[in-house]
Amino acid sequence: MSDKINKVVLAYSGGLDTSVILKWLIETYDCEVITFSADLGQEEELDHLEEKALKTGAKTVYIDDLKETFVKDYVFPAFRANAVYESQYLLGTSLARPLIAKRQIEIAQIEGADAVSHGATGKGNDQVRFELSYLALNPDIKIIAPWREWTLNSRTSLMKFAETHGIPVPTTPAKPYSSDRNLLHISYEGGVLENPWKEPPENMFTLTVLPKDAPDKPEIIEITFKHGDPVAINGKELSPANLLKELNRLGGRSGIGRADIVENRFIGMKSRGVYETPGGTILRTAHIAIESITMDREIMHLRDSLIPKYSEIIYYGFWFSPEMKLLQNMIDQTQQNVSGVVRLELYKGNCRVLGRKSDRSLYSENFATFEKDSVFSQKDAEGFIRLNALRLRIQKMIQNKS
């Protein structure tokens, strides 16, 4: 395979890193650069992106609307599993990377490009997520990871490079943290957030109000599920992307979904990240509630035992792995009975379940009641307990003899 790079497809956000990378690739490799930007719900971050990329030197610009695909084929499958990494992180960035990488590889094939590139640093998780996905989809693709090659070893030096080359970037020394936004969340890391003792500045938050500033009146909503996926809010059916967008709006104005986490990166270091995931927080709470009345106990416990592994697979970047396919197929089977409606209260940073109902409910008031019933003999519990206590009794009897 030749070392010469003729054409590169760059995952381009228009932020500091990828703006500099675009110019650096052209200068370093003397090659054509095609930029690809995935519209995953960044909203104003996509404004003037094509103009900026072309001005910086891009040969061709792709901006693809992938919002529905992102939510339907990546977010919803993970939420069917109640995926969460280290008990707090709802995997907003982790779920977006394989979709971006997949489309990059498709564009590389369309354009006849021999390489792909990304703006992930050599210290982070995203380099792994991007590159594992690239290689799973095209084992022969060349990969350029500038952060592992160039001498621009800090975001301060990148800002100087951008200034020298007349590249406008949103990051400034006054706000040096970086962010990543899509329909599921927005994340913040680096800069002022690198001290885990320091409180995040309030003016940083984008999707949520400060919980104490949220409305004094609670908001009651209902979410309808079908086979584990949400399909309607307050009886109104919505597409996957529009449903999550509406939950973000509802959760954001109630101050729901903020998380300040020190997490363990795949490569071995700890990292502090601040996240806003209003819609995802509501959705996970509601999904757990509808499962509580529709899912068999042993199926639920087996599935729950796999949540840490499933979440780790996504976080580490193995979305296109055989183990992920196996687990997803199993999880989707667990969701066949998970349909119904959940009623929730949104209030000052909290999401509280008020009720749940389903035509497929396994809950029976006749069996669960503490009042007199004719379907369950409490006397039956005696034999159940003694049988389960048998091994404990034997163990104790042997101890007493010794």
Q: Strand arrangement, largest sheet?
A: 3-2-1-4-5
Rg on CA atoms, Å = 25 Å
- The residue fraction in helices comes out at 40-55%
How many structural domains in the coordinates? 2
Largest sheet: 5 strands, parallel
Proportion in β-strands: 15-25%
Overall mean pLDDT: 94
Q: At the fourth CATH level, what is the homologous superfamily of the largest domain? A: Argininosuccinate synthetase, chain A, domain 2
Helix/strand order: EHEHEHHEHEHEEEEEHEEHHHEEHH
CATH topology of the largest domain: Argininosuccinate synthetase, chain A, domain 2
Total DSSP E strands: 14
Distance between the termini: 73 Å
CATH C-level class of the largest domain: Alpha Beta
Low-confidence stretches: none
Structure class = alpha/beta
Helix segment tally: 12
Summarize the structure.
The chain is an alpha/beta fold and 402 residues long. 42% of the residues lie in helices and 19% in strands. The protein has helices at 16-29, 49-56, 67-80, 92-111, 126-137, 155-164, 240-253, 278-294, 297-316, 322-334, 365-368, 380-401, and strands spanning 7-11, 32-39, 60-65, 115-117, 142-144, 178-181, 186-189, 219-226, 229-233, 236-237, 258-264, 270-276, 340-347, 350-357.
Tell me about this structure:
The protein is α/β, with parallel strands linked by helices and 402 residues long. It has 2 domains: 149 residues, HUPs (Rossmann fold, 3-Layer(aba) Sandwich), CATH 3.40.50; 175 residues, Argininosuccinate synthetase, chain A, domain 2, CATH 3.90.1260.10. It has 12 helices and 14 strands. A hairpin with a 2-residue loop joins β13 and β14. The radius of gyration is 25 Å and the shape is elongated. The mean pLDDT is 94.
